[in-house]
Design a protein that fits this description.
The complex is a heterodimer. Chain A is mainly beta. Chain A has no helices and eleven strands. In chain A, the strands form two sheets. In chain A, strands 2, 4, 5, 6, 9, 10 and 11 form a seven-stranded mixed beta sheet that branches. In chain A, strands 1-3-8-7 form a four-stranded antiparallel beta sheet, with no helix packed on it. Classes of the chains: A mainly beta, B mainly beta.
Amino acid sequence: ETGVTQSPTHLIKTRGQQVTLRCSSQSGHNTVSWYQQALGQGPQFIFQYYREEENGRGNFPPRFSGLQFPNYSSELNVNALELDDSALYLCASSLRGLEAFFGQGTRLTVV
Amino acid sequence: AQKITQTQPGMFVQEKEAVTLDCTYDTSDQSYGLFWYKQPSSGEMIFLIYQGSYDEQNATEGRYSLNFQKARKSANLVISASQLGDSAMYFCAMRAALNTGNQFYFGTGTSLTVIP
């Protein structure tokens, strides 16, 4: 196990709703990033947080937002859910510049 | 822009045999890192091996080795003595060395099935 935990593991939401996914990073890791992995695809970078500040963002609309807390845990929020948001959402943590460890992911289904 | 290409959607290998999973990449950066991750059906991405762009020797980690050919921009993963537990998705990824965070660029993956 990597020490990175995500919750919940599975989630079903209705189109138009809002969702919050959570990630508890490995102890001492100050950098957290989020990825979206659609079925049959590789993970796509959403954004990254370093010491509570967004520090890099991929090609995702503003309805994807996040937070990092003083204990370096993180949240991913998605507003106005669309069917295409159905995916596995992965969180990765690292001590800046070193190896990244991934959580087991949250499987989000939008119906 | 960085891009990773994995051209093998699925591969089969006999147990105890070796298998090579292909990965080519494109980047204009001089300094970068190449990674291979294993993703079982549970979803977690498991780190396998890392190669830095300035590393002169190919990386090895147990049964995993990375065949790095910089001029051809390829970073193939070789798994020796395949085991049934190796059946999973395998992803090649790149991270720019100047980006000291976790911004990886992933390929589309290769599904490996080990046959008893």
